[in-house]
Structures are given as C-alpha cells and as structure tokens.
C-alpha cells in the first residue's frame, strides 16, 4: 500500500478483490487482514502473463501478498527475495538451491543457477536469464543473480514470511556499498542493521560481542555490538511515543534486535532473564506523559501558536528560518540530548523543543541505590557515547512511518546495561548484598572518537532515514546546518538528524532533530494535553481553517463532491421513490410485532453479591483492626452519596440504577419508592455544585454520629489533578478538594469507596489507599468452570485480543487500512491542521459515501472502506429485517465535541437527503447534555417498552436498546456510560493516537465490553459473525431478499447454539442490579414500566414485549440474533498495534505504558509486568514503581513525613468495564445496612420455663410492688426443687412431693439442644455488655486499645492458699493492669500481693459496685461479653476474668485492661466446677485476709462485705419489671443497667443473712402463665449469682464437675438451711454464643495406652455407652477427664442402669449428697446426709434406685436403712479408685441388701495414668 488514497483504480471488480482478500485472511495465521483497498487504489492494472510482480502464469510472487501463504520449498532450497526495477517497493519471492548462494562470508557459491517458481510451482530453471523472464523482471541488461537476488527470507514466529539479511555476494566492500545505496522505501529488517563480518572485526578491537540475534538462523554468526549493546531490536509493533508503527498491511512486523526486551524463542548464550532491581534509583524518570507541560525549554523559548513577537537574537543563538513549515511541510521537533541546547530565535513558533530524550539519558545514567553505595565499582552506568550509539541503533530500526517511544529506549538502555554487567550483578546477588569484587573489565569502553563512525555505520543501513552530523563544532552549527538542509529540501527522505559534537575539553553534546512529517506531527501533538488538543481543534473549526479540507474534497471530482452528489440525489425523484417503495414493501411484508423481542430484567447476579460481601468483609476488617478507626457497633443507620463525573447520561444512569435497586427503601430513605427525586438527590455530579453537597454531608456526619455515611466515588480515575479547586467550568482539582479535605479525612463516620475500572493511577508510592483495603473483581470462570453459576461470561479486553489470534473467523478487533492511508496522506498535505480534524473529515466522507452506495450508487463504493460499508449495511439491514424495526447501534466515538457536532450535523443532512430518516436515528451524546431522539423513534421506544407517559424521553444509552441508530459519543474520555446490548459496532477510529496511556486505551476499548451467555461447554469465545463479512453480502446490490438470507448464515465457532429465540437479556456493567433495572420493573403479565414517575406510567399489555408461542418461519430478528455477540471494534492502527503486539512478558504492549499523564515511573530499571500477575500483584507493582507527578492529587500525601499515609477509612473497588460494579456497590449498601441493624441486635434466649407446677391454692407472699424481700416471709416460702430453666430440659427432674405438672406439653430432646433453642432478636440497649468487636469512643480507655493512651502495663502476682479437699497448697496467678492496682492491697507499692480490697457493709457510693464480679470463661476470648463499661453506666467496679493457663496469652491480647485470674495448669482440663470452686474458696480466703486487715484499721470483722458476683460470660442485658398500682397492677418491663440491678440487690435489708441471690431468666412471655406475680421466689438460681461466701463457707462447689454443677450446688446450699431467693422483678438476657464454653471439651481417642501416647485430633465416634468398660479389659481408651466420661455416660445410659425409675416420677432414684444428671427420663431425689440438713419427707416413698457418689463419712448404714427401695432396684456406687470402691461397699454393709456380681464392676475408659473412676452396680434383694 502506498501513502495516499489517490491513484488509478484497478479494473478488477471490487467483489473479486474482496473475496480473494477474505479468503487469504481466513487461511492466514496473521492477525492483520490482507490489504484490499491498496490493490484497488494504488496498484497498476493487471495483465495475464506480463504483469510486474506476477509470474508468466499469472501467480502473485510479491512478498507482501504471499507472506502468509504456505509455500513449497524442496529440500536443499532456500527462499530468497529478488528486487525488480519496475517494482522498487516490492520483493519477489523465489526458491533457489542453496548451493548456488554464497555463505555468510560471501564465498563458496557454485557458479550457475537452480531455482523454482513459488507462484505456479514450475521447477527446474537452470539459467537465471530463463528464470528472470518467467518472473517478469523485465531487465534491459544481462540478468545476474548477484545483482537481483538480494535477501534471505525467513518465517517469523507468527508464521509470516519476512525479509532477512542481505545476501553477501562480494564481502564487506560490496556489502557497505549496498547499505549506503539502499533507501528507506520499505521497512529495514533487523539483519540489515547488523554490521558485516568485516565490521565485526573492526568492532572486535572494542572488545564487546553481543549475543546471538533473535530470528537469525543458527548457522549465521552473531554480529558484534560495542559495550554490550542489547541483542534484540524493537519490533515495529512496539509502541511509539505518540503512536504505533505503521508497517504496510500484508508486510510482516520487523523482528528487530535492539528494543525487544523479551527473550528469543530459544534461549541462547548471552541472553539473560530480567533482573529485578533491589531498590529504586534516586533520580526518577521523566516520561512522555509526565512532561506534557514541560515541552518548552528555558534555553530555547518558543512562543504560542497564536503568533510570536520578534526577539533580538542572543549571542550564540540559532535562527529558525522563516516559512519553514511552508517550505518543507514539517515543524521540526528538537529532542534535547547531552549538553546545553543553544537558544532559538527567529521563527521559533514552527519549532518545538522536547526534554524527553534528555530525561531518558539522565535516568539511564542513575544506577539503583544498591549499587551506588559501593563507590568505585565495576558496575557503572551507561556512558554518554553508548547512549547516543544505542539511540542511533533504535532510530535506524524504526519504520518510515513509526514514531519513537521513550519507554522503548529506556528498555534498550536497561537491557544494554544489564548485559554489559551481567556477571557483576549476578555476583552481587549471590553475595547477598556484598559489594562485588573488582574484576578486570572484559573490554574497553566506547570512546568519543569511535562514536561518530560507528553511528554513521549504523545509520548507513537505512539510507537517508537517519542522518548523523558530526562535522559541526557545536550544536549551534549543527542546528543551523539542519535548518539549511530543510530549506533546500535535502532532508525530504530523512526522518531523524542526530547531531553529535565533540568539543575539545568539554563533554560530548548531542541532540536529535525529528524531520519526518508523521513523526514530527505525532510528537508535537503528544506534547499537548488532551484538553489543550481539544481547544486547538475547536479553535481551528471556529476560525475556519478547515475550509481548505472541504475545498479539497470538492475538488476530487464528481465522486468526491458530496454536496453535488446530495443535490443530484434530491433531483432524482425516481431513486427516492424506488427506495421508498422498497421500504414500503418491506414494511408491509414484515408488518406486525416482532415475535422475538423480550426484555427480562434480572435480580442481582451471584458474582455481584459476592463482591458486595467482600466489600463488607473489608469494612469489618477495618473495624476489627487494632487501629480503632471505625466502630461499626456504634452506628444504627446508613446514609450515602454517590459522586459521578459531570456527565448527564452517567448521572441519570446511576440514579436509575439506584431507584430500581430498592436500596433507598431498604435503607429507609424513600419509603414509597415511587419517585426518582430521592434517587437523584443521592447522586452528585462533580461540578461546581458538588462542594455544597459535600459540605452538607460533613455537617450531617457531625450532627448524626450514629449514622455511617458511605461516600461512593464512581469512575474514580477520572479527575486526579491536585487541588485546590479554582472554580469555573474546569473541574481540575475538584475531587482532591472534596475527598481529601480535612472534614472527610477526620470524620469517624464517613467511609470513602473509590470505584474504578482502571485503578493504576491510584496505586502509586504516595497512595492514600491501603493495599489491604482493595477489593478486586474476581474471575467468574476457572478452568472453564462457572464459579458463581450465573451463566454469563465477561467479554473484555483479553477476549477481544484473543479473537485476533483465534483464527476461527474475522477478529472482533480490527483497524481500517484504507482509512489510515487516506488520513496519513491528507496529514502530509495539510500539516497545519490537527490530525483529529483530518481523520474526522475522512471518516465523515466514508460514512457519507457508504450511505450513498447502499442507497443505489454502487459506483461510489471504491471511495469508502469495506469496514465502513459493512457497518452501515448492517445498520440499515437490521431494522429492515425485523417486523418490529428493531436494529443495531453503531457507536461513533468522537472525543471533540466540536467535531462530534459537525459529524452529527453532516450525517443527519446526508441521511435526510437520502430519505433514510425513518430507517435509523443519529443521536449526539455529549457529557453536558441529555439525549434527544426524534418523535418517530421516540414513539417506537415507547411502544416497545409499554410507556404511555407523553413526557417520557430516554435519559441513558441503555434505554436505546434495539433502536437502530448511530450514537456519536463525544467527550475527552468516557465517563462511565454504559451501552445497550444492541451495540453491534464500536467505531473508535477517531480516538487520539497521540496519547498512549494504559488507562486511555483500555477505557476506550472498555466501551465495547460485554456480558455474553456462558457456553454450555468450554470453547473459544465468540467472534464476529462470518455472515457479516460475507463477500457476497458486501458486494450485493440493494436486494432485500439476498440480505435477509445472508443474515441467517451459520453461527461462528464458539457461540452457544442453545440460546432460545427469546433469550435472556443480560445488561452490561451495573445495568444488572437486583430486582429492578434501569427504571424498568418487572410486572405481572410482562408489562413493563420504564423510568419517569411510575405514578404517571400506566401499565398495559403490549404485543411488542411479549414473545408469541410461535415465531415466523425462516426469519429472525437481527437484534435478537446477535444480542449475545460482542460488538466489532474498529481502532486506529496505532492503538490496534499497541494492543495486539506482545512484549516479552506475554502481555499486550499497552500494559507497559504509563497509566496516567500525572503519574511517573520511579525508575527506568523497573521490570515489566508479568502475565501471571494477579490484580493484587499488579497493585503492588504500581505501588512500587510509580510516583505521582506534581499535578497528581496524591503528590501532597507525604507532607506529614510518614512513609505510609493511608486513609484509615478508604476502600477501592476495581473491576473491568461494564462488569457490574454499580450493582455490586449498591448491594453492598444494602447488606451493610442490614449488618448494622444486625450489630445493633442480639439473639437472646427466649424460652418459657419448663416443668411448671400449678399450686392447688395460689398464695401471694409479697405484695407485687415491694422492692426487697422480708426475710421472715422468705423462710415461710417453700423451696422449689424443680429446675425450670429451659437450658436444662435434657437433665433429670429433681423430685419434689409438691410438684404437680402444669401439662405444658414440652417434648424433651436428647442432646445438643443448645443450638436448637428458641431465640429472639432484640435491639441492644445503651446498657448492654459487649464483646471485643465493640470499639466506641467512650470505652476506648476501658478496653485499653486506644492509641491516645499509654499502653497498659500489667504485673503478675501470685496468691497462695490451701484447702483440705485439694490436699496441697494452690497457687493462683493474678494479672493486674497498672490501672487496676488500686483494687488490691500490697505489702508495699510494687510488693507482694496481700489481698483484694473489699468494702464495708455500711459503705455506699452511688457510682460504685461493692461486689467483685468473677466471670469464668474458656474459648470465648473474642465473643465473651466482658466489656461492662456501658452495662455499669460508668460505675466503678472490680471485674475479674477467670481463665485457664493455656489461654492466658490470647485473652490478654484481646482484653489488655482486664484483671485475669489464671487457674493452675492442673486445671487446664477441668470443668466449670473447678473454676467455681476456686473462685469461692479464693474469695472466702480473701475475706478472712480483709477482715484481718480492716480489723487493724478499727472495723469489725462482720462489717466486711462478704458477697461476690458469679456471672456467666454471655449475660448481655438486664431488665426491670415495674408494677403500676394505679393502673390495676399493670406490668411494664424496661432495660436497666447492671449497675442499677446490683446496687438494688446489695441494698436489700438483712442482705448478709442471705446465702445466694439471683435473677429471673428473661422471657418475652413474662414469668409464666397462670402464676401470680410474686416478686420473690425460692428455687434454683443460674447464670448470674450474688454469693455470700461467708454463709456458704461449708458448702463448696464440686471441683470435679463438668455439667449441672449449679443445680448440685443449689440443692446442697438449700439443704444446709441457707436462704436462697430470686428477684423476679429483675431478669437477665443471655446471648446465644455458638462457640466456646462447655463445647470446648472434646472427647478424643487415645491411640495407645502408653503414657507418651499420642492423642487423635478427631473426636471419637464411640457412643456414650462405650465411655466405660470393665476393669483390666482391652478397650479403646479415651483422652478425656474421667469425670466428664462418667457424667456423659450417666446422662445417656441411665435408662438402662435404673430401669425401674424410667418415666416413673413416683419411684425416683435416691441420690445422696449430690445431684447427677441421669437423663431426662429418670427422676432424681436429692437427700443430704448432713446432720440438721433440710430434706424432703420420704415417708412411704419407694425408690427405684440408689446412687452413691464419692460418699463421705456422713453416709452410714443406718442412714441408708431409712429409705425403702423397690425389689430389683439398682444400686450404683461411684468412687475415685478401685480400692475405695471396695472399702465403701464394706463400710456401708451394702451386701446385706444388695446383690453384686463381678461383671457389674466398671471404670471410665481412661488409661491408668489418667486416673479412671470406678463404679459398681447391684440389684436390691
């Protein structure tokens, strides 16, 4: 293809050429289709047998045409390229016997010739003359193979035939001569740059030899490069500074040898993998993006383009000639290099100076700090000479239309440096940071004297493309010579002039002057910001500078003058009438509703819900962290604000998503949910009005501290400019001023959520977002498995790129070669016009001519591209092929609003002139305005969507679903707009190719992202429908039937054929939200309401939205047919090649670009991104290797001097475009609200009392309103032996002769009833107890976590006492924080702990609690309710956690400011009985010590407070019942503080005469039905006890017990005659905690009986009946306490042990001095053997069994003979060992009345060293 669209059109028919091209493209593995229009426009007319480039058989031999074709090459033959004088731009492919070709040294070639024709396949040509005639060389002299066989040809890794090195016929002389005479007419390959063997010898003196060149055959010797020049050169696909290389389509990309940073296909000597630098260098790299505003250098001042005033030329200045642009057609770019650039004067407006190259040089000369610190080291930076030489090498390799990219040059420098110091770097790394030893340098450095001729030698390989000037004495002379040559036209073929100056006694100086027209234009435009470019475009349009373009198009003749053609069309009434008749007939034939149109709105997708939960999890992690930056428990409501870019469509889109999602109703912000007003108030455009909304938010956060405000920053990458905001229309700095202000930063109840598809620019070294607060969108598929079962698959950038490599059809990602050629040619013709203006005019011309072609003027199709013709044809055909006139959308992206308005105006004019105004709409979409649709199409939309509101108009692009239209999408960048599924083509040919940034490219491509139905089975992703590019379709006339048939062609591979005709409509991005969508709600009968006020939208059925049960045969709606296919994307060639080319890491080259203009690379020694990196790893990469520029809002984030200044309440949600992020964060708001409500609530047990007994004559002992009991009345009240607490419904009933069942009908359950118990969800009051997750501001000091306070120090103290039951001294440990030491008495400050201080009975303090509170706990360090700050209402109290030794560290971690009582290690396996026993005995021992201490101070012993509180770790709230006597005894219950409850109990009269006080268990049904409201009662107490350790001195808890120790203790206290009573007007609520407590005791299997035996980690599967065994038997031993095994055994098997008492209340089991749970079917009668004990009367009671447990001396034979037993009753005697068992049987004379057998002796299933418990059973005789 040439450089201009003009030329003679070939006579070959358009259809034939296109057909051949498509066939060749489908056969080819190349991603670039063969050029069709280059043949049509630029090639000469063909002849059958004598056409140039073809053999006499008419077969094409040109490399550009057959590079991708399979060619037959016989063994021993090589493919070589022949030069044809008549075709200087082409190479002819020949197959030649390698014996007749010279070797690499230019020798050993046989005389003669032997070759074959690769075109027609004819073989056996023995003479080159004969062969040259066959291939039509048309020589006027004698043909010689040495003259015309020029190149070796090779296959690239992509399978494309590419030009290789020159064939060396005459050695170095001939080679150099050929290199010098060669021109840059075509691309220079890597081998052409390589020095010849003679040059290798000359360079060998320098001593550096480069590795083998990639792509060169193994038998070709490697060329040499001075000072470690890199082994690979840049591919032409590498990204330029402002655009990608433009190699002619059909020609392969270059396989370069310098800038290719990746390894060759096969590793060879000298290649090394990337070495990651240890640290960043000191000097940061200035990249192209960061230098946008630095394009003017101080030493070379340039005036604005508006004009300049003459300046007096300073001394040594360079005068820029006048009319330079007019003379040579180019505005040169001067790239500063080394040294100082002289000042410029004169016509400086036509010259631009750029510092980019200079910054690159400086960065490459700054080593990483890890090497700098060693001073004189063999690891040295690149020299200036080497940098200049490598720069020349790089420029030589660039294609004629390729623009240099500074990142490529950085990679070249880095690889060269690493190659030259590879040995030293490896030695340093192996030495673990030690400086490398000084080794002799393997070669001498490149000298200044060698540089010029080496640079010239390299430049000679491309002819005149690169010119090296070294004759000038200074840069001034060199620049003057360059300007002179430009004026004289000597640099017409030169793209770059490299000026090298070697002044004596001074450092080397250099610069590069860019003189190529395309290169200079691209570099100049890239140095302007996008905003400046848009202003320049608007200026050119406003000043009329583009009029010359209109004049040019009008001068092209009758086929180019659009105005004349349109005028001609308006005069040809016949054509219009014929077209109208076609439309009319089409409308009649397809009249009726479309049977395939159906809109089905989705609930939220599973993956969106998963992301919402991840966001919630991260928010909870912030709240749970030790930083205390967020207290979720203090919030009872969620409010939010969503910030969006200033786009009207985006604003309406988010508002509709919000309204339809139901989130407002869920959060209680819009109760009715019938209006959009509330939704629009929650969405804020980021314009000048946003400041007031943010101020209101900050104010509301201060006055509503219990409300959590979520500030959602959607499309967060849009404005990153640094504040302050200056006001006006420009939004620069607004986001920084709003989100980073002090009010947002410090508000404890504002959480900021950034949402973006491109987070890279937010992930710099100075980011405000913690890496732990990032949430990345998960992949929905893993190994073709749908992880979330949602049956949709995301089709994004990677899938589009995969379609270019799949080979299963035309790719979805394409570029238009004809359009690019025309735009390039016009760019050279009009150098003063901006390239975007030119490209827009060309594209409007293409659309216009395509519409005319499809309106009947087929002769014009040669003037428009196939791509434009295809998309316009599909647009017209789609609506014509559907009875409902549904069609496709074509997106035309025009960033400039001025150009977009121009395109909109001209295309509408063309459409209307051609009579197509009813076929498709043209919509102009701009950020600052809404959508406007003509009345005809507006009525269609209303009909399809059942809208009867006359004022309704579409407000989002999604509401244009199925509307045939061209959407002209303007704006500098997309601002978050979502597009409908009817999008068929995404025309991005007009996006700016001048600013190559990762975010810019990916967000433009993100417009086409799509959610497709997942395939039933794994396979390739969908590609474009082959029918859309069918050659017959493209070449057909306006025949409707043929096009309808074409639309029904076979689906492409990879598409799901199972999609029904009325398939599922899956909306892109956040268009998929829960329940409702886009203002469209699903209603019964498929009627739909869209947007607007629902109150104004009447619902009525519509045939257009309902699919009938049958579809018309043989016809499908084109919209329905293709709605599950992603759109086709047309890109500029620059962007296409940036995306499709792959760097050494396997990623698209675009991923190595800077992410944003305001971001800079931290170092040029950075590695490349890896293909295997996850999103998290990419985030860490950018956090390490990028820094914010001075204009970036994060550049001020290190002002405080801290290394990591993360915002504590800031989250980042990132995910690909159009994937559903809006729906995810809206769902997050909903579940966050529910969670906060849940955090304010607690599940408490809400159960009725069990085993209720109805007295025959109810007695009211106390008046209902009395506050304290009367001790005399209490003594008269009977004790209720029956246990009523529902948690004990699976235990044995305690026998009471007064018990009469109330018939409550409760069915008892067997085991593990804990989790099945009834609970109620109750809102937490302000007096609740909390676990460790509560972090309010008030209790920070109480908890000891607040960073504002000094860390709490604790001291360890021992407390020793002895007890007869323990047999030895017990040493307990107190962990006492410094802040709590005042509760204890010490021998001296910091000395021995003496006692725990107790108050006097007479003491009274309204803000203090007298009784120490003990809370035994295990396994609940996180969930135990130990925070009593709010429950105590701030009262002073002493709270002690009783823990086991092995849990000390974890409890101390979570509760650093609590006093810990640590049980001895021997109790690590003990149960709750041991903790209660030690607490009580410790408390009594302490009471005695306190009495002794206070007696010395004058107090009486009986005046010391004797009470302690035993509280369960799940007591959450306390309630008080109040009786109102004035209202007839009405009862009200309210929540009160624990302080109030305890102070009331402690104030009871005669309190010291009571042994045990307790509270009622709360129930929502009160104290129980049918019972009088007695304020006090006597019975069992549980969970919360006020214990008098003085009165209960002789009654101990059983330290061995695991279960029911409270019931056992209550019975023994009562039998001792001690008063027990309960405050029924107070109740305690117990929280359901599913972990910890008694569940921590697991019974596991012991592997062997060996004392050192291992314990299985898996709980035993043995049933409880196997927990005991016969002594001395072989049985599976268990690793569990013997007492626990015994209690579990009795609980589950006592129905077999005591069969006469099963379900027999009148014959209970007699249990002496203890209560053991025998299971719910057996009744137990408790009797105390102590003298003067209180027992029930057993006269006349026959017992069904006798249980003796560890009986002491009070149990005698005479005592047992008082009781009567049934014949056959069972006796069970339990003792701690076998010996005491036999002694007990003998002492109690049990054998007199009980019969024993040897087999009735048992032991618990414990090994001997675990001390099993023994028991004996017998039968009563």
Automatic annotation (TrEMBL):
Q: Would I find Transmembrane helix among this entry's keywords? A: yes
Keyword terms: Membrane, Transmembrane, Transmembrane helix
Compositional bias, Low complexity, is annotated for: 1102-1112
Region annotation (Disordered) ranges: 214-282, 1018-1123
Start and end of every GREB1 N-terminal domain? 47-171
- Domain called GREB1-like second: residue spans: 256-554
Family classification: Belongs to the GREB1 family.
Protein name stated in the entry? Growth regulating estrogen receptor binding 1
The gene that this protein is the product of is: GREB1
